[in-house]
Acyl-[acyl-carrier-protein] thioesterase
Amino acid sequence: MITTFALTDNTKQIQNMNNLPTIGKYHFMAEPFHCDFTKHLFIGHLGNNLLNAADFHSNERGYGVNYLNTINKTWVLSRLAIELDEMPAIYEKFTVETWVDNVMRYFTNRNFKIANEDGRIYGYGKSIWAMIDTETRQPVDILKVDNQTILKYIETNYDNPIKKSSRVKLDNNLILQKSIVANYSDVDINGHVNSIKYIEHILDLFPLEWYKQHTIRKFDIAYITEAHNDETLKFYTDKKIEMVSDEVAIQITKSNSEGEIEVCRCKITFV
Amino acid sequence: MITTFALTDNTKQIQNMNNLPTIGKYHFMAEPFHCDFTKHLFIGHLGNNLLNAADFHSNERGYGVNYLNTINKTWVLSRLAIELDEMPAIYEKFTVETWVDNVMRYFTNRNFKIANEDGRIYGYGKSIWAMIDTETRQPVDILKVDNQTILKYIETNYDNPIKKSSRVKLDNNLILQKSIVANYSDVDINGHVNSIKYIEHILDLFPLEWYKQHTIRKFDIAYITEAHNDETLKFYTDKKIEMVSDEVAIQITKSNSEGEIEVCRCKITFV
């Protein structure tokens, strides 16, 4: 069903017609009130900066949500993986480079490289995005939109060491850890629970003491169904919190009149 | 006990010795993932930008937490009032100007003006800060610290229409609305519940539907006691949520082995 689009010489030639490079580079700072008690950036805020970089990069190149909203379409984040050697410390300035290395009919792969001004690399990110119709909420064939603008900015020669991640496997014996009702602060401009808010709620499954001994090496989250205001979100883990050593899988479901549906699944690797 | 410090001609003369103006101006944008479902900046994120501006301004002038931490002292936010005619919309760039107009022995008054690049004013903020010793957690006489650096940057000729706010009065018959346990994401670099997180939790007392009909005109919060990880926060209002028309008072308490202690009190005026 999903066909990988092969870059032709022709698409390579029309790259950079607006003199914008395929790779966008954006500048951020680990703001003091976005840092946790260890004085390092919360991973949720780092995730937010990655999404900002994606948003700026795609809008500048004419295929972002600013354009898509005019034709009743939008980008939806389907998967986000972050692998970190280190997390920016309070007040540290860092850059996020982002580029798209592959466009398929229904998905694009977007990459992130997080480094400081001196080139020291904090880590990388990899994400998958779908384009949907904002009225039907159905997937749209990306290659049929706006003369394939996105293909002008494909970058296949910039390295990202994150391997293509496989689907997170879940046991049958998941443990319910908490249940919350999504409300005002959880909901984004599209009326859905904000992708980053899930990450914050997931990290809050672990006691603060945990983060004195452990840092996050990998964070991989797949967004399956959208959740909305007033829906009950349940957070499950594959092991008891006190039994977690280096790896834990988390499932979030929503419950409404149709029953309980999977919303996200996530795997975290701690060191 | 608290003496207002009168500016002398001498302190005026030593202003700007570092060529930095008394008023600092900082640039922000209403980032897409910091906007609510109405596509306007969440007030919590605006509050965060005000605190950033305060932090940048005081650090640049040598009396910020970067210096204070070296002598085991820090600034603590005691009160924050925000009055808004309008809230920045998604992607709008805005500036926060900040200046200190008065320094007393134990408190300083810091002002904020929020405008766009064309000078259209969104609103103002007013804040009161105390300086404390990070070991004893006791107030410190601001005028005895570092040769009164702060006095070099007093600005008394820039207007802020926010009136000096009076203490929020609370009924005896408060209604308990929710109870949460403060955890990892709530806690800031000092190990205390983040000032902005209280604002987010307060706004979540109102259903999303409420914000379809109402916007925040004034938000005034007094921080009384610090709360910590694992403490239970209780949120009370002076009227039933469904009975709120334009004004509501909120109290937050924390419960620990010493009983229930007031943490914040807040008044919101909606239009």
Summary: Chain B touches chain A through 39 residues (CB under 8 Å). The mean pLDDT of chain B is 90. The CA atoms of residues 231 and 256 of chain B lie 6 Å apart. Helices of chain B lie at 9-13, 43-60, 65-68, 195-203, 210-213.
